[in-house]
């Protein structure tokens, strides 16, 4: 049975803070929401680490927006829908592509380092986009450039109170409404009740559930797990995007991504025999959508009995490669590889969580007072397969919408949340203590080998048994960041395996070896999970009003 709260330290001294708007997470989605909301409200921005330790910071390719000559929101709409393989929410995609260009122009005003030639913005091309439409900064350093600009704006905004090294454990709910979050300070171990009229969940993705991932250490899926415990609907969790070109060399903690933009600029994929193979699988060749490229790579690797193929940029100009892809070339050099002269071993790697907390087109979740934006959310724009460079855009567009709706929501609320009191439950997990590191190794091993790129019923069933055993064995005497993360990852890993087993078809990024075709009749629909009502109102984590 899932409890509404995973927190279990009733005897700790609780600090207390109150805000109008509480933003959880400091990537593009969280910072955009915090900066926007601070124009009107007192905002608290909490992040587990620094503002630089995010997935946003790592983004390479750029941001997709229909701002170029000959482009239009209509074309961007069609490309997004086509990639989404029948599961996009058309209303959400329309919002994304129509509002995207304005949001990107606004971002360019605070982030002046977007790449230009003769004053004109340069547009890159990526897989499954019908024409060049990706704005980028610092060559392939879009994420770090955007992060610096937004962080400066957030830090300068006098109404944003920033708390780094603050780990969010649970969302606080009162009579079904979200009223803030309980956090653990990673420096002094103190627990704080952060009470707010509105809470914006922007905690990003969950690549760490797979171990071999391009995602940073903070991407442990905490947001989806805590929102589920708080009663929010979550969906599409089986749609985990594996990026085709993760660097395939051993010993990497976070797998280096070789951006799709390189194929956009003409790099080829070759098999072990040195042959280009993509054109045999799709007329768009290396620029087919990610799911198609991954399928083709897996087929080639199986046929040849290898665990990687090669990316070939040796026919492109060395000086230009260095200038256009400085981060990629520097990263490869650390592994003794030279993009300009050598074939680079690549293999699919866990990269992006398409599913998440269900929202409408204003970022509202199914729990009043709780909004979600960015990778943690399921707005419906990605369908069954995210189009490259649409995710930074999603964070920008929907966080802006969240801010607009928050103004309306708070206007209607009129309740003094500062007077509310929350009881955190007694410790419930006593017994022989488990090792969080060992539990995590078991979990990621199961996910990688049994719930990975290509799935089969027997493997998924085995994974569910093993994940169930791990869940029932786990006992933590002392709860800290690592223990909370393992519990969240176990919740999410189990949900992914369950949904992947249910979906008996191959669609978008969800590939079933035993059901290789799309089955529109049975499966052109979402799988949505929500904690049953009686478990949501369970005794632990009860909330009462003061006085
Ligand atoms: C290597 C790489 C390259 C990419 N390139 C591109 C690209 O070119 N274009 C594109 O559109 N997309 C790209 N993506 C995807 C994109 O970067 C992400 O989807 C996007 O940045 C997510 O932004 P976000 O704000 O939702 O989350 P993040 O940027 O991941 O921010 C999450 C925040 O939540 C905080 N957090 C998480 N859990 C907790 C917790 N329990 N308590 C407190 N805080 C918490 C973290 O500390 C962090 O501040 C790339 C992804 C990767 C991994």
The CATH architecture of the domain at 243-348 would be: Alpha-Beta Complex
Structural class: alpha/beta
Low-confidence stretches: 427-431, 537-547
Are any ligands bound, and if so which? flavin-adenine dinucleotide
Q: Estimate what percentage of residues fall within beta strands.
A: 15-25%
Whole-number mean pLDDT: 91
**Helix amount:** 25-40%
Query: How far apart are the first and last residues' alpha carbons, in Å?
Result: 32 Å
DSSP summary: helix tally: 17
Supply Rg. 23 Å
Q: Sheet bearing the most strands, described?
A: 7 strands, mixed
- Say what oligomer this is: single chain
CATH topology of the domain at 243-348: Flavocytochrome C3, Chain A, domain 1
| DSSP strand count | 24
Can you tell me the overall shape? globular
> What is the class of the domain at 243-348 in the CATH system?
Alpha Beta
Name the CATH homologous superfamily of the domain at 243-348.
Succinate dehydrogenase/fumarate reductase flavoprotein, catalytic domain
Describe this structure in words.
The protein is α/β, with parallel strands linked by helices and 547 residues long. Among the domains are: 243-348, Flavocytochrome C3, Chain A, domain 1, CATH 3.90.700; 436-539, Fumarate reductase/succinate dehydrogenase flavoprotein-like, C-terminal domain (Methane Monooxygenase Hydroxylase, Chain G, domain 1, Up-down Bundle), CATH 1.20.58. 35% of the residues lie in helices and 19% in strands. The chain is built from 17 helices and 24 strands. Strands 1, 2, 8, 9, 10, 11 and 18 form a seven-stranded mixed beta sheet that branches. Helix 6 packs across helix 15. The longest helix has 24 residues, at 390-413. The model is unreliable at 427-431 and 537-547 (pLDDT under 50). Residues 24-30, 46-49, 53-56, 58-63, 142, 167-168, 202-205, 214-215, 218-219, 222, 257, 351-352, 374-376, 389-392, 395 line the site of flavin-adenine dinucleotide (FAD).
């Amino acid at each position: 049975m899932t409890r509404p709260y995973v927190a279990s330290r009733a005897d700790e001294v609780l600090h207390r803070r109150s805000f109008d708007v509480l933003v959880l997470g400091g990537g593009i989605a969280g910072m955009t929401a915090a900066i926007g909301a601070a124009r009107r409200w007192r905002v608290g921005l909490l992040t587990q680490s620094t503002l630089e330790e995010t997935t946003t910071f790592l983004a390479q390719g750029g941001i997709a927006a229909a701002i170029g000559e000959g482009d239009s929101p209509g074309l961007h709409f069609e490309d997004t829908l086509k990639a989404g393989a029948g599961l996009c929410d058309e209303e959400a995609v329309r919002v994304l592509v129509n509002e995207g260009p304005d949001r990107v122009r606004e971002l360019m005003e605070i982030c002046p380092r977007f790449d230009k030639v003769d004053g004109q913005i340069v547009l890159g091309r990526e897989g499954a986009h019908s024409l060049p439409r990706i704005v980028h900064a610092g060559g392939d350093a879009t994420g770090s450039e955007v992060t610096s600009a937004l962080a400066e704006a957030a830090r300068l905004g006098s109404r944003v109170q920033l708390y780094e090294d603050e780990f969010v454990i649970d969302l606080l709910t009162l009579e079904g409404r979200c009223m803030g979050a309980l956090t653990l300070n990673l420096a002094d171990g103190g627990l704080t009740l952060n009470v707010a009229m509105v809470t914006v969940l922007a905690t990003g993705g969950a690549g760490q559930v797979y171990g071999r991932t391009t995602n940073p250490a903070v991407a442990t899926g905490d947001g989806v797990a805590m929102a589920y415990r708080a009663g929010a609907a979550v969906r599409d969790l089986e749609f985990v995007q594996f990026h085709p070109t993760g660097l395939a060399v051993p010993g990497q903690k976070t797998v280096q991504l070789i951006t799709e933009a390189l194929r956009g600029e003409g790099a080829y994929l070759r098999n072990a025999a040195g042959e280009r193979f993509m054109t045999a699988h799709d007329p768009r060749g290396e620029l087919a959508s990610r799911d198609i490229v991954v399928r083709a790579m897996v087929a080639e690797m199986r046929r040849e009995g290898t665990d990687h193929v090669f990316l070939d940029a040796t026919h492109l100009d060395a000086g230009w490669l260095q200038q256009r892809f400085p981060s990629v070339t520097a990263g490869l050099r650390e592994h003794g590889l030279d993009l300009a002269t050598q074939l680079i071993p690549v293999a699919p790697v866990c990269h992006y969580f398409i599913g998440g907390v269900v929202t409408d087109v204003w970022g509202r979740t199914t729990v009043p007072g709780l909004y979600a934006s960015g990778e943690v959310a399921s707005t419906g724009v990605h369908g069954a397969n995210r189009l490259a460079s649409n995710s930074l855009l999603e964070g920008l567009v929907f966080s802006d919408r969240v801010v607009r709706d928050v103004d309306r929501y708070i206007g209607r609320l009129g309740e003094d949340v500062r007077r509310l009191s929350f009881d955190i439950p007694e410790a419930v997990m006593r017994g022989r203590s488990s090792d969080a590191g060992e539990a995590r190794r078991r979990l990621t091993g199961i996910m990688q080998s049994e719930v990975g790129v290509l799935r089969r019923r027997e493997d998924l069933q085995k994974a569910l048994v093993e994940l169930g055993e791990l869940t029932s064995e786990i006992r933590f005497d002392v709860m800290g960041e690592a223990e909370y993360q393992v519990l969240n990852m176990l919740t999410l890993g189990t949900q992914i395996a369950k949904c992947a087993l249910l979906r008996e078809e191959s669609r978008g990024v969800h590939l079933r070896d035993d059901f290789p075709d799309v089955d529109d009749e049975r499966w052109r629909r979402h799988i949505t999970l929500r904690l049953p009502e009686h478990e949501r109102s369970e005794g632990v984590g009860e909330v009462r009003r003061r006085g």
